[in-house]
Structure formats: structure tokens, C-alpha cells
Amino acid sequence: MLRYLTAGESHGAVLTAIIEGMPAGLSLAGDYINRQLARRQGGYGRGARMKIESDTVRFLSGVRGGLTLGSPITLQVENKDWDNWSGVMSPEPDGRVGERVVTRPRPGHADLAGAMKYRHGDIRNVLERSSARETAARVAVGSVARRLLEELGIKIVGRVVRIGGTEAVAGSLDMEELAAEMAGSQLQCADPDAEQRMIAEIDQARKAGDTLGGIFEINAYGVPAGLGSYAQWDRKLDGRLAAAVMSIQAVKGVEIGLGFAAAGQAGSLVQDEIFYGQDRGFYRMTNRAGGIEGGVTNGEVVVLRAAMKPIPTLYRPLRSIDLITKEPVEASVERSDICAVPAACVIGEAVVAWEIAAACVEKCGGDSLAELKDNWHNYLLYQRQV
Ligand code: EPS
User: Quick check: CB of 311 below 6 Å from ligand 1?
Assistant: First the structure.
């Protein structure tokens, strides 16, 4: 079983993740993870914090000589901003925690709900962990999963399909074409015309003291039929993918395949008819199911879309109530991004990679990569024979 936990505050010393269950013998280099971390930091519309950080990973356990050991892997990403926050965020009782106290909750953030839950009088105790800074750790973890999936011939590609009021044209689902169309994009968008309009919208939002959300799509290529299970609710892969993506900060909706659009169509128009060819086995001419039927992959590309709401920290703040005085106030203004949909798309890739890697390990087991690959190979052979 693959599992992981992350820890770390946004302005704390470091972010940490511990991964357990990764097979031994997987080649893993810091640079490979750093490339994904850099992708997450980019995207037009990010704020000043990203000029301070240059996220790089350090392995503290579980990797030796460039190969995983099969023991727990500890990943660490330093917060460069710690230099500016070591007093305010000090774990010691004689630190400066009385400074930069936040008492004006931002509507839409975890601020008020979190303070009520944990009985905090300083919202900083909430926002430091609810912040999307935590996703740097999840991208590092997802990169390890992505490396494992490469060994099994599975690739994960995300793209931004909407920012604010601008929608990208549907475009190709072919992996190579999609990657080529996105090369050089500042928004991980495969439609250059739409991208120009998206950038203009972000500029407008910045001027207006507002923020923008959007929709990103994650495609998983090379996934064989039979991952996940219909047999129990918590083994259904669509449910696990939806939970993983929904848990990304500011995501408010997830759909797989036709998703919400299927609800309004006739049953004959939303399924994928079944065909068979000697060379390719069972296949479909359409992919309305988004590659998953009954919680199980069906051999088609897994296609998932997520809606991200606009970031709740606004430079032109909304009305709120002070946590302590209970007086009407304007919500606090923290430094923030204008639009982080491209970053969320990279995070989406990471969490989808993790769930699919976990399903692969469940299907084919393996304490070592060699054993996993043997079992995987046999399973693929069987698939072609049926
Ligand atoms: C965030 C606020 C900003 C973002 C941050 C998420 O941070 P700060 O308050 O330090 O300027 O930059 O995102 C990251 C640091 C990151 O790495 O993605 C928030 O309030 O959630």
C-alpha cells in the first residue's frame, strides 16, 4: 500500500513529506522532482512570494545512490521566506508570536471555520497550514509517483481549459500534440489565442484588486483496464481521484469524462460502445466515461476536470467580522496570487499521479520495481489474450 503525509507551515522553516510503500530500486533524482516544483511555481498571475522561493527538494531518507530503498522516503522543501518569519513563527515560547496577529477572517478561506474549530484567537495559526504553500510538498510526492508511472508506461498531462470568462478550444487529446501545443505557454494552455485573452483578464483582475479562478483538465495516458475496483466504495478509482483533486486548495468541483454534462443527455448518448480488434483487444470509439466505468479503469485515457474558485484573499477586501471584538471590519489583506489555476493544474497532475500509482501497486504489488514490472508485464499480456 502506498501512503503519504505532509507537514509544514507556509512561513515555517520547511515543508516535509513522508512516503511509505514505494517499491525499492526506482531511480529518483532531486532534479527530476525540482522540475515539477518549478512548474508549480510558475504561471502568469502568481504573486510576490514566488520571487522569494525557488523550491528544491532534499531527500532525508529512503533513497541511496539515486535509488529508492523500499524504506520510508522523507522529502524536504525549505521555505526561503523563513528568514523573514523565524521570529513570528518561532516554536520557542520566547519567540515573537504576538506580532502580525490576524483577527479579520477572509470570507472563503479556512480562516474563520479553522479558528472556531481549533479555538484559535490568532488566525495565523490557521492560515499558515491551510495555505496552498502546502501543495509544494504534494507536488514533490506526486513527482515520485510520476517517476514510478513512467516505468510502467503511464504519463500524466494537465492543461488549463478556462480562466475567468475565457475558455480554450477543446483541442486534441493526443498526448504528443497536446504537449507540443502547450510548449512555451505561460498558463499551461494549449490554445494560444485564448491564452492572450486569459492574460488580459488576469491583468484586469489585478487592476481591480480582484482574483480569478478557472478549470483545469488532467489526462492519464497508458492506463490499462482494471485499476481500482467496483467491489467496495473506497476502492473505486473515480472516487479516490475525485477526493484527491477536490482536496486541492480552492477546488470546488471535479468531473470525470462528460461529468455534469452527462446528466442532461439521453442514456444512449453518454456511454461508450464496445469494439474488439485482434491487434488492440477491446476498445471504444468514444471516451465519454473518461476512462473509468464502475470505479475501474477501462483502458481508455483517464480524463478529469476540476473547477478552481477565485482565490479568496482580495486586495479589495470583502466585509467580515473581527474574531475578537465581533465588530464589522474589512477582511485582512495578505500578500496573494491573482490567479493560480496553472499551478493548481500542476498540483492536479501530482495528486492524480499519486492515486494512479497507488492503484498500480495495489494491482501488481511488488516490494521492488523489478517485481512490480514482472507482474505488470504479465498482467498486460493477459489483457491482450482475453
Ligand atoms: C497563499 C498566499 C501566498 C501564496 C501562497 C499561498 O503566500 P504568502 O502569503 O507567503 O505571500 O504565494 O502560495 C505559496 C507560497 C506557494 O508556494 O504556492 C495562501 O494564502 O494560500
Answer: no
